[in-house]
Amino acid sequence: MKRYRTRRPIGALLALTAAGGLLLTGCAGGGDGDQGTKETAADSRGGSAPMPAPDRPRGEGEQRYDGGTGTGEPGENGDSRETAPAPDHLSTFALDVDTASYGYARRTLSEGRLPDPSTVRPEEFVNSFRQDYDRPDGDGFTVTVDGARTDEEDWSLVRVGLATRSAEQEGERPPAALTFVIDISGSMAEPGRLDLAKESLGTMTDRLRDDDSVALVTFSDEAETVLPMTRLGDRRGRIHDAIDSLEPTDSTNLGAGVEIGYDTAVEGRREGATNRVVLVSDALANTGDTDADAILERIADERREHGITLFGVGVGSDYGDALMERLADKGDGHTTYVSNTEDAREVFSEQLPRHIELTARDAKAQVAFDPETVAEFRLVGYDNRRVADDDFRDDRVDGGEVGPGHTVTALYAVRTRPGADGHLATATVRWLDPRTRAPHEESGDVETDALADSVWGADRGLRVTATAAYFADALRSPYGDGDGGGALPGAPRLGELAERAGALADRTEDPDVGQLATAVRQADRLT
Q1: Which of 40, 61, 65, 171 has the most CB atoms in a 10 Å sphere around its CB?
Q2: Which are the contacts of 148, defined by CB distance < 8 A and separation ≥ 6?
């Protein structure tokens, strides 16, 4: 299958510089840059508006075309506001590479239960798998757009893939100042919770650099700072002792933990360093301030004032998924879920030390579908990451923060016009340089003749993406029955999907795809 990759610098933009910090894939950028007056897309419609506002809220139902003549090509100096297509032809979202939803679903299925449909977020299933997109030589992104036709007439799945430079292309990164906020409530005594956190934090302490700093806050019915911000250097023994002393007790005052955690982070904040709060919890708040909005506002205030952001690590078979995701989103952050030693070691011991650098801040993507060839389209997932189309180039509106070695995938269900041929879509990613906050853009195109004849005959990456999306689609159906009547075109029954996932795992010999196949089989047996 032919794939179109077009890398077009927008305007006379300067080369990117590596700066800032990132705790983990997709973890929101903190550091010490000026946060300005940034607002969320839900709260902001002011400022410059390169395109008119949509006629109705985005992300609700199908987005349909009624004609239009825009091309989506940038004008001079990278400004496409003069020639942008009508807003009904656009889809805009903030980048997000959370994976907690998929990890928690796997844990739930392994215990013989179907996940609650409200915890299933398709984009987190899709983004849980490595992709082989081309990568840029420096900071920023490459854009890959491809797709394949489904068994449903005129419907295709179109994939937008964004990639940063390889994590192995490491230069000097800024030091990290990490405040770990650890839940030691009674529920954390369950195997696979606090024991995993302690083991992983101990291993991570040995992996960080001498000029990195760590603080440790615990919370149960109350919160306390066990270890103030401490430069590792020759103090690793002191940090290990603090970690080893953690024991479960009493109830869960998550609000107090977040508050004291951020106080500790602010007190130990280091200029020129990556400043992060890392929350490890089952997110089952039951004591003190349990109101999500109050806790969330605390995080937002600290992000705006000090540039300190949140990374959430979920644990436990009973897990407050919704609260943890809202906390991370409000804190410009990222969530993941760990259910066993292997998961925890990968997160704390491998990913965390490698991905402290930040390569892009406030990244958003906008896909312009050609009204001559596309009748309608729908973005799969990203429900709480939608951005108003006219906010794409409003850099006060929050986007996502992304570091090296990462990919972001967005999947669209697209109905082409019968017999349509030619340009299908243009995808553009916009981000700010972490140090200078200068905006940059990169685009990629796809034509109708680049679509593979079948999803199941497409290349490996697209097949994995489709399998993960179809799986999430089945789990989100009202009865979790995966009867082929889901929202995605060409959705197979779970039994057929399990067979396809198994065959794909056998061909690729990829353990991650093998775990996906196992999860689909488990879901099929439970429906």
Answers
A1: 65
A2: 1, 156, 157, 451, 452, 453, 454, 455, 457, 458, 462, 466
Whether the Cβ atoms of residue 385 and residue 374 lie closer than 8 Å to each other: no
For tokens 């999860």, name the residue: 519
Q: Are 472 and 448 in contact (CB under 8 A)?
A: no
Distance CA 85, CA 445 (A): 15
Say if CB 220 and CB 251 are below 8 A apart: yes
pLDDT band at 107 (very low <50, low <70, confident <90, very high): very high
Is the sign of the CA dihedral 218, 224, 229, 231 positive or negative?
A: negative
d(C-alpha 52, C-alpha 320), whole Å: 38
- List the single range of 162-176, 257-271, 457-471, 499-513 with lowest mean pLDDT: 162-176
Question: CA 323, 329, 332, 333 torsion: positive or negative?
Answer: positive
For the chain, report the end-to-end CA distance as a whole number of angstroms: 35
Alpha-carbon distance of 143 to 3, in angstroms, equals 11
Q: Helix (H, G, I), strand (E, B), or coil: what is residue 438?
A: coil
What three-state secondary structure class fits 400? strand
CA-based nearest residue to 315, from 218, 401, 448, 191: 191
CA angle 371-469-499, nearest 5°?
A: 125
Find, among 393, 398, 300, 400, the residue nearest to 359 by Cα.
400
352: tokens are 């965390």
Written as one letter, the residue type at 390 is D
d(CA 467, CA 472): 9
Tokens of residue 526, six digits? 């439970």
Q: Is 513 helix (H, G, I), strand (E, B) or coil?
A: helix
Rounded Cα–Cα distance for residues 396 and 393 (Å): 9
Burial class (CB in 10 A: 0-12, 13-18, 19+), 57: exposed
Instruction: Evaluate if residue 14 carries a pLDDT over 60.
Output: no
Cβ count within 10 A of residue 205: 20
Tokens of 519: 């999860």
150's tokens: 């489904």
Helix, coil or strand: residue 158? strand
Q: What angle do CA 89, 383, 521 make, to 5 degrees?
A: 115
The stretches of 162-207 forming alpha helices (DSSP H) are 194-207
What pTM did the predictor assign? 0.79
Nearest to 254 by CA among 187, 176, 336, 333: 187
DSSP 329-383: HHTT-EEEE--SHHHHIIIIIIIHHH---B-EEEEEEEEEE-TTTEEEEEE-S-T
SS3 163: strand
> In this model, does residue 20 exceed pLDDT 60?
no
511 or 88, higher pLDDT:
511
Distance CA 146, CA 155 (A): 14
Q: What is the pLDDT of residues 429-463, one digit of tens each?
A: 999 998 788 999 999 999 999 999 999 999 999 99
